[in-house]
Amino acid sequence: MRWIAALTGAALLATVAGCATQDRTSLAPEQIAALPGQVEPVHAAAITRDQAIFWVTSNGCTAKADLRPVVAPSGEGSIITLRRIKEDRCEQPQPDGVEVRWSFEELGLLPGARLSVENPAQISAKVG
């Protein structure tokens, strides 16, 4: 059952990530480098019901406050990049990662806004 969820998540991420490759952020490389933390690879992402939902790697202590969503205008919508600002140094890895979510209101977006994900995919090699 887990591998079905992982496969579904990977397919969803590939679909969402495909949107991000069509429009690129309007930020210059030096602006991206100046952003807080590091770009966080994601297990899966979904943009639904005016929410951005991510599944990220966790060693047991990852909280929403450890990550920062950066939203930049691009083309007809916006691009979100999730950045980790606090490392998870715990030693109890969560095989499926943890879910974190932000409402469009928290992100400063209008309801129904177009949003693409720019984070790289973290595909789990575990099957079965």
Walk me through the structure:
It is a single chain. This protein has a domain of 89 residues. Helix content is 23%, strand content 31%. The chain is built from three helices and seven strands; from the N terminus they run ααββββββαβ. Strands 1, 4, 5 and 7 form a four-stranded mixed β-sheet that branches. A three-stranded antiparallel β-sheet has the order 2-3-6. A hairpin with a 2-residue loop joins β4 and β5. It is globular. The N terminus is likely disordered.
Structural classification: alpha+beta
- State the helicity in percent bands: 10-25%
- β-sheet strand percentage: 25-35%
Spatial shape: globular
| Separate helix tally | 3
End-to-end separation in angstroms reads: 8 Å
Query: In angstroms, what is the radius of gyration?
Result: 14 Å
Largest sheet: 4 strands, mixed
- The average pLDDT score comes to 82
Keywords for this structure?
128 residues, alpha+beta, four-stranded mixed β-sheet, three-stranded antiparallel β-sheet
Topology:
Blueprint lengths: L1 H21 L6 H5 L4 E2 L2 E7 L2 E6 L10 E8 L2 E8 L13 E6 H4 L7 E3 L11
Parallel strand pairs: 5-7
Antiparallel strand pairs: 1-5, 2-3, 3-6, 4-5
Sum this structure up briefly.
With 128 residues, this protein is of the alpha+beta class.
